[in-house]
Design goal:
- There is one protein chain.
- Strands 2, 4, 5, 6, 9, 10 and 11 form a seven-stranded mixed beta sheet that branches. This protein has a four-stranded antiparallel beta sheet with strand order 1-3-8-7, with no helix packed on it.
- It is built from no helices and eleven strands.
- The protein is mainly beta.
- Helix content is about 0%, strand content about 50%.
């Protein structure tokens, strides 16, 4: 069965960085695009970034462009989200998504 396991969240000060990882299993990872979504407290889930199967095509929501980078390592069935210059408004639960499968989420809190 499909499994998506995120890690790397935590508490960071404004301006700091975090790197999220998502290890996937149960499907042929290298054949499919992957996404990161987030859900801020009290708000709906929103798309953060998408990456194509080969890792050469990416898309970001406007609010994270220039600060976040999505990447993947198909040899390790892993997708990453490098988050730099974090701001309090980036506080959310971050989810790794494949089609309609969602990971359990990892909490990112940006606060001084």
């Amino acid at each position: 069965q499909v499994q998506l396991v995120e890690s790397g969240g935590g508490l960071v000060q404004p301006g700091g960085s975090l790197r999220l990882s998502c290890v996937a299993s149960g499907f042929t990872f290298s054949n499919y695009g992957m996404s990161w979504y987030r859900q801020p407290p009290g708000k709906e889930r929103e798309l953060v970034a998408i990456i194509g199967s080969a890792g050469t095509t990416t898309h970001y929501t406007d609010s994270v462009k220039g600060r976040f980078t999505i990447s993947r390592d198909n040899s390790r069935n892993t997708v990453f989200l490098q988050m730099n210059s974090l701001q309090p408004e980036d506080t959310a639960v971050y989810y790794c998504v494949y089609r309609n499968y969602w990971g359990q989420g990892t909490q990112v809190t940006v606060s001084s």
